[in-house]
Design a protein that fits this description.
heterodimer, A: 232 residues, seven-stranded mixed beta sheet, 8 helices, 41% helix, globular, B: 371 residues, ten-stranded mixed beta sheet, 30% helix, Elongator complex protein 6 (chain A), Elongator complex protein 5 (chain B)
């Protein structure tokens, strides 16, 4: 059942076909989840598909939530060796767990930290060999922790996301982010998550079942792919 | 109706008048505002190229998409601006809006602007942005008295970097500039306070709102019951436009929109009666509907035993005589006594059902009952 669900997700994203050109090139994917139903498995599945032997993709994984060992362990169970991929320069891991922008002169430091992160991503892309530059996927896990690292500066986070969005246009790369919808559910106007939804071309939501908890089925995933009439 | 908007922008403003301004407003419930924006942009571009519009140039202030996006968009619509772009200029507030690339040590990473577009690397400074827009616009139209139009693809993004009052100020200044023919912008209403949306609506001569096709379905959890309604909302929507005319009157119109890969389509909204009639009428081979003439004839038919409400005394047709006969007989209103004006007393006029009917006797017809 789980494999069948994953295959449905692959089909919905167009990943069941040929790997090149990468169906998500130039597109922004937002994964939303909640406490009851984690959406991390979608991120892991996309890592696995991006690093399939038939594709040329390079992943820049910006990790705020977990260390490398966590993802390595999970992806091994899915049949993907992240250590090998890292050695082959196909999986570039940015460990951001310790990133904390200093409180002194809070505004500039928070922004400065994210500017440096953007610079790091940009330089990594520009430093790739020519044939790899067109097959980059940037993954960020997860945006709520980026906000924490920026001392709650959601405007700086949005600026950072905007610049990452500009990279999808400049280099035709993919941008995949994860955020927790229920963090913002109590806000009258959840600007950050709404702005992210406006930026996204594909929205994947992981939710609990409407009928409640079940032992065999942990939740449901629905995907909305905004028409590609706006893209070339 | 969407074409009405485009024509209004095409025709521009009169001498001494503020330029027509259009706010395109949407929300996450029906996120097709950008499709509408692209439609208007394409139509206005066609008018400018054909020489049919008041404006001779177009400045696109791009916050949410790259200049190359608009080049490709217009190319798909049959307008190749890469080869001939003396009428359009794109102010790029998308690629490096905050000047982050200027902070980078390695300048080789920075991009070069093209002749079609120029960078704005400080979107927080709206005075400078205003100057850039006017400068680019004048660069397109030259020194004469020609005018240019302005398209801003996201005031929602603009207000992220500046205050509401300064955004309102720049829009008002642009609208009142004597070389600006028309201006339009896109706003995501659910990102802002009502105050900001209201401010922009007051500044606008036209407000176009995109709303969900099935309002009830929005916000609900996805399940099999509402899936089809939600799917409809991802492709269809309602398009309401409010026009403020020169004479001060406000006109409201509505259409339906359908978003496809090829673009957006606008269709007129059927009235409620038409929709009900379409649903109730069975599909048969003979005509069940009335023509206009038949409706008029039907309205003229005098119905029996019905209040005709024409101010004349009511005439009840008893089935035996024509209405014109026996005018000396007193007339009766339905169910009520009509008092005699002279005597002040009421009277009841009784018409026998038949001439053969025997007059009432003193006998009680129920006398034979053994109760």
């Amino acid at each position: 059942m789980e494999n069948q669900n994953l295959n449905l997700l692959d089909r919905a994203l167009g990943l069941d076909g040929p790997s090149e050109p990468w169906p998500l090139s130039g597109r922004v994917v937002l994964i939303e989840d909640c406490v009851e139903t984690s959406g991390s498995f979608v991120l892991h599945q996309l890592v696995k598909r991006s690093l399939s032997p038939t594709s040329s993709n390079v992943i820049i994984f910006v990790a705020f939530a977990n260390p490398f060992s966590h993802y390595d362990r999970i992806l091994r169970k899915l049949g993907c060796n992240l250590v090998t991929q890292r050695d082959n320069k196909r999986f570039i891991f940015f460990d951001m767990l310790m990133l904390r922008c200093p409180d002194v002169d809070e505004g500039k430091s928070s922004e400065g930290g994210l500017v440096l992160l953007y610079e790091k991503i940009l330089k990594t892309i520009c430093g790739l060999p020519g044939d790899k530059k067109d097959y980059v996927t940037i993954m960020i896990d997860d945006i709520s922790l980026v906000e924490v690292a920026a001392n709650g500066g959601s405007d700086y986070v949005l600026d950072f996301l905007h610049y990452c969005h500009a990279l999808t246009s400049e280099f035709d790369c993919s941008l995949i982010t994860l955020n927790h919808e229920d963090i913002y559910s109590s806000m009258e106007r959840p600007t950050l998550i709404l702005q992210m939804e406006y930026l996204a071309d594909i929205l994947i939501k992981a939710e609990p079942l409407s009928t409640g908890l079940a032992t065999d089925v942990h939740g449901q995933v629905w995907l909305s792919d905004y028409l590609s009439s706006q893209r070339t | 109706m969407a074409d009405t908007i485009c024509r209004t922008l095409r025709d521009g403003g009169l001498e001494g008048e503020h330029a027509p301004a259009l706010t395109i407003k949407d929300s996450k419930a029906s996120p097709f505002g950008f499709d509408v924006f692209n439609y208007v942009l394409t139509q206005l571009s066609n008018y400018i190229l054909a020489g049919k519009s008041q404006s001779r140039g177009l400045v696109v202030v791009a916050y949410s998409r790259s200049p190359s996006f608009y080049v490709d968009l217009l190319k798909r619509r049959g307008i190749d601006i890469a080869s001939s772009h003396d009428w359009i200029h794109i102010l790029d507030c998308y690629t490096d809006p905050l000047g982050w690339k200027n902070w980078l040590i390695d300048k080789d990473i920075s991009q070069e602007a093209s002749s079609l577009s120029s960078f704005c690397q400080d979107v927080r400074n709206l005075d400078k942005l205003y100057s850039l827009i006017i400068e680019q616009g004048k660069g397109l139209i030259g020194q004469g008295k020609d005018r240019f139009s302005i398209a801003i693809d996201s005031v929602s993004e603009m207000v992220r970097h500046a205050s509401i009052s300064s955004v309102a100020g720049i829009l008002s200044n642009l609208r009142s500039h004597d070389q600006v023919s028309s201006i339009f912008w896109l706003l995501h209403s659910d990102l802002h306070e009502i105050k900001f949306t209201s401010v922009l609506e007051y500044l606008s001569s036209m407000v176009a709102s995109v709303e969900p096709f099935n309002q009830a379905a929005f916000g609900q959890r996805v399940d099999l019951e509402n899936l089809s309604m939600l799917e409809q909302n991802f492709r269809k929507g309602k398009f309401h436009v409010r026009f403020k005319r020169r004479n001060g009157r406000v006109r409201v119109m509505c259409e339906e929109i359908l978003v496809e890969l090829a673009g957006i389509k606008f269709t007129p909204v059927l009235s409620e009666d038409e929709i009900i009639n379409q649903r109730l009428l069975p599909k048969v081979q003979f005509n069940l509907q009335l023509s206009e003439e038949e409706r008029n004839e039907r309205a003229k038919v005098v119905l029996p035993f019905e209040h005709q409400g024409n101010g004349k005394p009511i005439q009840i047709y008893d089935g035996r005589r024509s209405l014109g006969e026996n005018k000396e007989e007193a007339l009766v209103s339905t169910g009520k006594l009509q008092p005699d004006e002279d005597s002040g007393k009421g009277q009841i006029i009784y018409f026998r059902d038949s001439d053969d009917e025997m007059p009432d006797s003193d006998e009680d017809p129920d006398d034979d009952l053994d109760i």
